[in-house]
Amino acid sequence: MSEYPTQFDKDALLKCARGELFGEGNAQLPAPPMLMMDRITDISGDRGEHGKGHVVAEFDITPDLWFFECHFPGNPIMPGCLGLDGLWQLTGFNLGWRGWKGRGYALGVGEVKLTGMVRPDRKKLTYYVDFTKAVQTRRLTMGVADGRVEADGETIYLVKDMKVALSES
Predict the structure, then answer these.
(1) Amino acid 99: pLDDT
(2) In terms of CB atoms within 10 Å, which end of the chain has fewer, N or C?
(3) Which GO terms describe its biological process (predicted)?
(4) Nearest to residue 136, comparing CAs of 87, 98, 89?
(5) Fold annotation for 10-167
């Protein structure tokens, strides 16, 4: 389906952040420290729970990550919005991986449930994005997906109906 591989290491993700993976003006990941994953371990446009595409990615947690120092002093917790942003980043990445054109942007999310926290003693986050819809027409390029974040195997975030679009304007 795609001309790109189904796994990406940190160097490839940084290449995407620089706009070098999918081409100038197309889907691009943020640069560190806002890049919320270290590798993509699997991606597709036709697999997943609904057969409409998926992404699995990992983020290594270390006590020296930038957000632990400021959120909150003396009680370090990764902001939940960063986990949500990681899911949005991966949703947009999948659209670019499909070869679809345009810059990505988040449109919204239907529901977010935070059931656990990421503290400095955690080792790894695993992101799961499962597309429920992927649409490309002359006027609209958009993905709708559900997401899950696990910390060391424990589900801590559940997200329904994330929406990400690509726009060439």
Answers:
(1) 95
(2) C
(3) fatty acid biosynthetic process
(4) 98
(5) Thiol Ester Dehydrase; Chain A (3.10.129)
pLDDT recorded at residue 1: 60
In single-letter form, the type of residue at position 67 comes to: F
- Is residue 54 part of the annotated active site? The answer reads no
The string of DSSP codes covering 8-77 is B-HHHHHHHHTT-SS-TTS--PPPTTS---SEEEEEESS-STTSS-EEEEEEE--TT-HHHHHSSTTS--
Other C-beta atoms closer than 10 Å to the C-beta of 105 total: 12
Is residue 84 within 8 Å of 45, Cβ to Cβ?
no
Which are the contacts of 31, defined by CB distance < 8 A and separation ≥ 6? Answer: 14, 17, 18
Where does residue 102 fall: left (phi above 0), alpha (psi -120 to 50 degrees), or beta otherwise? left
Given 71, 101, 160, 163, which residue is catalytic? 71
Residues 6+ apart with CB under 8 A from 75: none
Q: Please provide the size of the chain in residues.
A: 169
Q: How far apart, in Å, are the Cα atoms of 55 and each of 17, 48, 71, 73, 76?
A: 17, 8, 28, 33, 28
DSSP conformational letter for 109: -
